[in-house]
Amino acid sequence: MSRNAKINALLLFVVAALAVLPLALGLGDHKEEPFTGADSEAETAITEIRPDYEPWFSPLYEPPSGEIESALFALQAALGAGVLAYYFGLHRGRRQGELRALAQRDTTTSTTSAAARPSTTTRASQSTENRENAGSTGNTGNTGSTGSTGRSHPSGSASEASAPERT
């Protein structure tokens, strides 16, 4: 078992223990509603300390029962988890796509530059030919153009544009 798998199994065990232990140990048996939220616990504690206390704010919507309140809270938690999962998944996917594009560009550039690097005599003949073409057509010698050998200069622009995408 790999180190990550062991850590994941340990974390899963801890989460399960946190969920089961309060039920198994009978925590909250002495209460009418054993597992109420922190808001109602705080309200109870405040009214015990100061019976004449009036809250500053009242809720916009108060559900008719505790089950509906729990369901709305669970829905809110699920929506929040979905938004976070979407964000982190999108961020990871973009990062992986960038890494793939860089790797593809590196492999394409290295194979094209090795194959497209003409010898010194070929370069000299191409530069002479480019000068002759520049005089007759008005071009100033584009580095991406091909000479009589059919090879492109190692600028990489033509090879990157025509390289197939890896998915």
Folded structure, characterized:
- This protein is an all-alpha fold and 167 residues long.
- Residues 136-153 and 155-162 have low confidence and may be disordered.
- The chain is 65% helix and 0% strand.
- The chain is built from 5 helices and no strands.
Low-pLDDT runs of 5+ residues are 136-153, 155-162
Span between termini: 30 Å
What is the overall number of helices? Answer: 5
Sheet/helix structural class: mainly alpha
Percentage of β-strand residues: under 5%
The counted number of beta strands is 0
**Biggest sheet descriptor:** none
Topology as H/E string? HHHHH
Task: Calculate the mean pLDDT score and round it.
Answer: 76
Radius of gyration (Å): 35 Å
In one word, what is the shape?
A: elongated
Helix fraction by DSSP (H/I, runs of at least 4): 55-70%
Kindly summarize this structure in a few lines.
The chain is mainly alpha-helical and 167 residues long. It contains five helices and no strands.
List strands and helices in order, with pairings.
Layout: H1 3-24, H2 38-49, H3 66-116, H4 120-137, H5 157-162
Key terms:
167 residues, single chain
